[in-house]
Amino acid sequence: MKIHLPNSAFLGNIDAFIRSFDPANPDALEVTFNEKWMSLHPLVLSMTASLGLLAKQNNSSIACRIPEATSKHYLDVMGLNKFLPLPGTTIVKHEPAGRFIPLTQITNSRQLTDFITEMVPLLHTTPEQAEPIKYVISELARNVLEHASSPTGAIVCAQFFAKSNRISIGVADIGVGIKNTIKMAHPVSDDISAIELALTPGVTGTTSRLGGTESNAGAGLFFIKSIAKVNRDFFVLYSGTGMYKLLKTPLGHKIKLNANPQLDKSTRKNDFPYWKGTSVGIDISLDSNEKFDKLLDLIRDVYRIDIRNKKKDKFKRARFI
Amino acid sequence: MKEIKILPKTGKFAEDKDAARNIRLSEIIPALEKEDIVILDFQGVDSATQSFIHALISDIIRKNGTDILERLIFKNCNSTVKKIISIVVDYMQDINENNQNK
After folding, report:
1. Contact: A217, B58; criterion CB under 8 Å
2. DSSP codes joined into one string, B87-102
3. How far apart are CA A16 and CA A31, in angstroms?
4. Would you list the domain boundaries of chain A?
5. What does the pLDDT look like over A57-109, one tens digit per residue?
6. Given a cut of 90, is residue A211 above it in pLDDT?
7. Which terminus of chain A has fewer CB atoms gathered within 10 Å of its CB, N or C?
8. pTM to 2 decimals?
């Protein structure tokens, strides 16, 4: 396996990074870095850390070409040296003022709850800005714990980018991948079809029954895609050879949430190097005026399209006191 | 009438589905079997995930039908929590109706 961390990789140009990944020869992992400097989306770091864990688990050899001092410090701070042998680097304790969450491995529900409680405040957002961040991390990491059968759990990482005033989040695993989960309950021909089904509200790999089970509604990824859509941000879901990328909705264009992910402005391809598991990246702009409450109104509208056409008196409202 | 406080089991951000399942199985369902009215008190809960609310109430609606909402009351919910509960209640009713029509 070979992975190269370039000087710049964000969700807008992530395709080139992913295409450069070489999953062949799982007995050896080679990691190379841009020589000068790097500015990377947390998705890139989460994927790289996951490969490090996979290689260790398989007793594969790991070769890292050591980057220059500036980049080395960046990788130290983000905690990559906990997952890869980077000679000459030192494990640095997290600096709370940095507005980032270093690479963290989450393997159980208790860890996830503690992580959200302790780490998200380090991003120094307002409580209102923190809501979608907590939401995204919780739902993505729980998906891994419940569905991925990942031997290394979920690798989570987040960072604030001052220039674009956004928080970027990456979550990666080396589990069974979306296609293998979805196909337990739905017929799917390829990875991108499975990804699109997973993004469709009401579809879950735990049952073919519409609406899911007592534990799974099949709505989590739809909510997360919707958070990105409402904030006019990118969202990337990569699993197997498939990658779905929600593109930014330009300012001035009306936001409309779609249950069918194909109706969103997006790219959908099925010819990427095979990723064993699932990797998700999302940006959350802190400029956005769209509140989490407004997002929930839009999501409710999607679910209520059919209901509007039915007799209202048959439907009950939740009673709040 | 039985009142069940959510905050002590979840913290301010209610996202732990295992906790939701435990509350449903060990508190809500037994209470609904004994009492006329069961109140879920969300005092102090700032936010919740759809997955948490689904794990908390969807199976109760699926098994008992929508009439259970006359006896299952939600108290002290802020706007976010109210909206997430409403989304889950809406789609569960839709699903129930679809299943009845099959």
Report:
1. yes
2. HHHHHHHHHHHHHHH-
3. 16
4. 2-306
5. 999 999 987 776 677 788 888 999 899 987 665 555 544 456 899 999 999 99
6. no
7. C
8. 0.92
